[in-house]
Structure of Anaerobic ribonucleoside-triphosphate reductase activating protein:
Amino acid sequence: MAPDGEPTSGADAAALASLQIAGLVPLSTVDWPGMLVATAFLQGCPWQCVYCHNPDLMASRTPGTVAWDEVAALLRRRRGLLDGLVLTGGEPTRQLGALAAARWAREEGFAVGLHTAGAYPARLAALLPHVDWVGLDVKATAARYDTVAGARHAGERATASLALVLRAAAERGTGYEVRTTVAPGMASDTLVLARDLRAAGVRTYALQQARAEGTLSLADAHPPGWDAEFAALAEEVRGLGFETLHVR
Ligand code: SF4
């Protein structure tokens, strides 16, 4: 670690100063299962999922409202109380400063968690050696991916990112959770996807029932019968044999 915990290089300092951070949660017990963390919300995402709960974070040109120095000061103040820092978004891998933030947190003795939809596989590959745990969204089968994410080539990028995370888990023991948000009309696709993920070697999986609150374009997340359909999907996925399955 550099003296006084300062960034170890001028390049990292510039990258940290450039971070667009839209919010900072000083204590979270849910963003990284089993860990007490601070969570930084990084502005900007290239995708437009219908069920996105953070639509205000999509715009890439919106400036941040939290300076990196605030994040660093919080972590230092709570050293010994917090286990780590989670970078979420938006899509945190969009910002080059995410790598500097992960390195800084590690050098300060904090574990680093990352939430990503895998929109930037090359940047994810650079980040993964500096990350201890990844929550990776995998949204749909290849046939439906770009529709669900609202962006071309989203499926290819997510597939590449999944391979990177599984390789990091196998080679470096990086922790991970693959998760799928399921909106009405997506149950049958999600079951096919879950089978594919299990076959690909995913061990920890989470099914998340979409909620309309806070979204821009998911008008009705609870049509008649949807809760029962989601419960039936969860039962079928339970039978696929994931080592850990979370249903939320
Ligand atoms: S990838 Fe995540 S942050 Fe981006 S639009 Fe989809 S749900 Fe929202």
Q: What stands out?
A: The mean pLDDT is 93. The longest strand covers residues 21-28.
